[in-house]
Fold this protein.
Amino acid sequence: MSTEGYVIALDQGTTSSRAVLVDHDARMVDFVQRPFTQIYPQPGWVEHNPQEILFSQLGSLTELIARHNLTSDDIAAIGIDNQRETTIVWDPSTGQPIANAIVWQCRRTTDLVNHLCSDPAVSQRIRAKTGLLPDAYFSASKIAWLLRNTPGARDRAEAGELLFGTVDAYLVWVLTGGLVHATDPTNASRTMLYNIHEGRWDEELLDLFGIPASMMPEVRPSSGDFGQTSYPGIPAGIPIAGVAGDQQASLFGQCCFAPGQAKNTYGTGCFLLMHTGTTAVDSTNQLVTTIAASAPGQTQTEYALEGSVFVGGAVMQWMRDELGLIRTAAESESLAREVPDTGGVYVVPAFTGLGAPWWNAEARGTICGITRGTNRSHLVRAGLESIAYQVGDLVHAMEADAGRKIDVLNVDGGASANGMLMQFQADILDRTLHRPQNVETTALGAAYLAGLAQGFWSGTDELSAMRSSDDVFEPQMSRDHASKLLAGWSAAVRRTMA
Ligand code: ADP
């Protein structure tokens, strides 16, 4: 056992919960992961059982603690990062949730949002206050739905008998033995109820969605005091000192602390975030403005621009599961390298429409440029390239909004393991890519936030300095060739929208 101790990150994701042990050199020493059930009660609906989330998270934590014989003295702090927007309402007198959690992906409240936000003036005010475009994705309408559709809930909420939280707040509440009901600004900024400029829950929006203010958690700095552990079976008195939503945690874990620094996560979908300092940049490309996690001592709110690609690594899942072109996602790299290019083939994976900067919900996927010579490798390569083209489009939209260039794109996520994809991304973007040795940047971000608050690390300079041996991808393609490829992509996207 190191005398220096550890920080533990609780990495609460959409499909699993993990407890991650991080040492003073920011190494991921070990982790325990527990999946939980995805509940699909109707087409388009997605739920989680909050108790199952809780037990998967607590189970992974206790197993990690037991495996390493840790006591509360060994653990400097606990940090939490979580799936964002997912909504839980519970009764603090019993600790029981009133219903299953409504998951961020759930579309059940689309009509409710369209109805409540049908007035363009309302929609505009939501945008101005929260930085978000009204959508069922965010927590507001999910809370409203639970209050409208759970028998007795509205009365109990109005009597001050119910609490709301995103998953972080629920975990904090349980772990502190019901003492602390709090969230952080990054999670608050995804509820569509939080005024990101004034740093408070917005009365007008709470009224609009019929949500009593008494349900809302206190909003505390992402790196700071969220109480101490007080739960049977877990060492008592460990400070919970960091909380952030997963994407902002990953921005922090990538050491993007300054304006213009950006990261892209290549997972099932892709999430691009650019730090914009203390300026909340308004997007003209329908990207969202969100709050970034700040280090302790930062007195002014820091912001980020965020955009996403709906189908990122998922295009490889599709090629594996539906087309049978590959056996594993990792195999895509060797196959793609068998050919020098796609032979003019483009895949546009607009399975559910196209996002920023195209915004076309009706578009559906296309494969174009196929000839008699097109083979499996060409198709797989075109699938991989489609991820890079979509991220490229998003980067350009974000740069236009922010009025500055992203010099270095920090990358992480499952598909960032693909060297061919990363090189192609650098080539078509004409930007340098940095891939850290530890691509678990989300858990790392939560650990950093908690560790900084407890003085386990001295400051962000120390964190940046620990990040030494990144894999670097420099653009190598001639600009002429890149332009031709990009023109082909634009033509393919136009066909997709036609
Ligand atoms: P998530 O957190 O969204 O579940 P991950 O970060 O675990 O996703 O990444 C998994 C995604 O990345 C899957 O969609 C998978 O198809 C894709 N992927 C994983 N490894 C590779 C690879 N070597 N090349 C291309 N895609 C990959």
Remarks:
- The chain has a mean pLDDT of 95.
- The chain has two domains: 6-245, 255-435+468-498.
- The first strand starts at residue 6 and ends at 12.
